[in-house]
């Protein structure tokens, strides 16, 4: 289980680093979008802050996953992002669903493997 945790954590970290750095440094051209996803994407871009915020969160959590530092916190911080990635791909771009499932389920797996660290969050004192 420990090797699987390291592999999944590293793969997610590298994926988050690549997508965030690609966004900030314009390393690859924006893929063409159409239909409802294009309208959704234009709304995200029009907000001016949401995409940079999400990509900054991906960058910080990607660094955390790759280095293995603060992974318990990074799992919680990146969870809303991975949930949105899954839902956006499920409803708007189902052709990208396999990668979205990997990202979301990988995040769930990492939370499960660190469950001892989260037990205190669910105590009713």
Structure description:
The protein has one domain. Helices cover 77% and strands 0% of the residues. It has 6 helices and no strands. The chain starts with a helix and ends in a 7-residue tail after the last helix. This is DoxX family membrane protein. It is a multi-pass membrane protein.
Question: Which properties best describe this structure?
Answer:
125 residues; mainly alpha; 6 helices; 77% helix; 0% strand
The gist of it:
This protein is an all-alpha fold and 125 residues long.
- CA gyration radius, whole angstroms: 15 Å
As for the number of domains, it is 1
- Helix-strand category: mainly alpha
Strand content: under 5%
Reconstruct the topology from this structure:
Elements: H1 2-25, H2 35-46, H3 50-67, H4 71-91, H5 97-113, H6 115-118
